[in-house]
Amino acid sequence: MSPRRKVDGASEPDSAVPQPRHRRAWGLPLAVTIATAVAAAAITLCTLVLIAHEKQSRATINDIAALDYVRSFMTEFTSPDPFHANDYADRILAQATGQFAEQYRQNLNAVLVGVAQSEPTTGSVLEAGVSRHNDDGSIDVLVVTKFTAKSPDGKLVMQRATRWVVTAKQEGDRWKISSLIPMI
User: Fold this and answer.
1) CA 183 → CA 34, 142, 163, distances in Å?
2) Is the Cα dihedral 168, 172, 173, 174 positive or negative?
3) Do 144 and 125 form a contact (C-beta atoms < 8 A)?
4) What span, in angstroms and rounded, lies between the C-alpha atoms of 35 and 23?
């Protein structure tokens, strides 16, 4: 037989046997698909956790800033100086906004007379804590203060503790007091 002979499909018995097919490797594409889905789910979950963490972190920082401001304000508010009543009233009014500012302006003369006639008082904040977050972005803070005053002769020391609900609102980069309510 010559190597150039014509092969006829009918004459050769081997031509009827089907050629073996290459088996598809489906394991590798399946593994890659599953790994991609797991990686996408992990990235999504990590992103959601990061967003929640950042939200909580910002809220905590905001609460701390509000508490520090309210503590400072209440220390100043509960420490009137009768010798500088006008300065005291101006400082308090500069830190007021909203309803508290309106009430303070309306009663400014009475406040000035009351401060000028009082004895020097030292106020301090015993404790403060966030009570509630309001829808308008303001924060209600429950504050416990202590007033300490001496009698005119200096022999009698009077102390009184009071509770307040103070609403602090951020205006721009500054906090201001929009409501100040004594608790009975």
Assistant:
1) 61, 9, 5
2) negative
3) yes
4) 23
Q: Is 19 inside a domain boundary?
A: no
Instruction: Output the furthest CA–CA distance in the chain (Å, rounded).
Output: 139
Kindly report the CATH number assigned to the domain that includes residue 53.
3.10.450.50
Is residue 87 domain-resident? Answer: yes
For residue 17, being part of any structural domain is answered with: no
Domain residues for the domain of 148 are 27-183
Global pTM value: 0.75
15 within some domain: no
Q: What is the pLDDT of residues 83-113, one digit of tens each?
A: 999 999 999 999 999 999 999 999 999 999 9
Burial classification of residue 121, based on how many CB atoms lie within 10 Å of its CB (0-12 exposed, 13-18 middle, 19 or more buried): middle
